[in-house]
Design goal:
Elements: E1 4-9, H1 14-19, H2 21-26, E2 31-35, H3 41-52, E3 56-59, H4 67-74, H5 76-93, E4 100-102, H6 110-116, E5 122-126, E6 136-138, E7 148-153, H7 162-175, E8 177-183, E9 186-187, E10 195-196, H8 197-209, E11 213-214
Parallel strand pairs: 1-2, 1-8, 1-11, 2-3, 3-4, 4-5, 5-7, 7-8, 9-10
Antiparallel strand pairs: 6-8
Length: 222
């Protein structure tokens, strides 16, 4: 048994994510990076660097709007037209095809999945703080039909303890499960919803030690 660990990162920490590329390379790890906001030339450069290093790319909407609430107020198609298409169009014009979508604030419904499924092969949602079974998936269930991956949040805001993260990786390795984490920016002494560099390093090192594959969503069955 070995298990899989999926590290995912949201928002748009261009500098932190780019700077972390050598760290991921050290542990032969890939991750998913999902971008919010306007896709600028700087963002395109970050996307290309991450992709060249083997990482998966995703989108996270223009305004970080909750999909169900936005759809209820403005209509289902308006969410795609206003929150997703402006990002996607710029990416495609630059020769980049993001394969995944991370739902802002982990909020989604059936209408959102139906709307975005023709465009993206996988979706990242969440299960709140660390703990519980929702962030684990049995390998037998990891099929192309399973497109929503629920992650446990890592960072000060989520009251993360390093020992809990390592224990979760141990479970994935021991029970041959797929484990998903999510966070945001990466930096030394990161606060709030962001990933402290020391925590990420400890998690990567432990996952490698336990023989877990660390992959991005483009490497999941699809």
């Amino acid at each position: 048994m070995s298990g899989i660990v999926c590290f995912t990162f949201d928002d748009c920490d261009v500098k932190g994510w780019t700077a972390a590329i050598p760290l991921f390379e050290k542990y032969r790890a890939h991750a998913l990076f999902s971008f919010s906001g306007v896709i600028t030339e700087e963002v395109i450069g970050c996307m290309k660097a991450l992709s060249a290093a083997g990482h998966s790319l995703g989108l996270h909407s223009i305004h970080h709007a909750n999909a169900p609430e936005y759809m209820e107020e403005h209509g289902v198609q308006a969410y795609y037209d206003q929150e997703v298409a402006p990002q996607l169009d710029v990416c495609l014009a630059a020769g980049i095809k993001p394969g995944s979508f991370a739902f802002p604030n982990n909020r989604f419904n059936d209408a959102a999945l139906e709307l975005l499924s023709p465009t993206f092969h996988h979706f990242r949602a969440g299960c709140g703080t660390m703990g519980g079974d929702a962030m684990f998936m049995k390998m037998k269930d990891l099929t192309p039909q399973c497109r929503v991956m629920r992650g446990g949040g890592l960072g000060e805001y989520y009251h993360t303890k390093t020992e809990d993260v390592l224990a979760a990786i141990d479970r994935a390795a021991d029970q041959d499960e797929c484990l998903t984490f999510f966070s945001h920016g990466i930096s030394e002494g990161a606060k709030g919803v962001n990933m402290p560099l020391a925590l990420l390093t400890a998690a990567l090192e432990h996952a490698k030690k336990r023989g877990c594959r660390m992959i991005g969503f483009d490497e999941l069955p699809k």
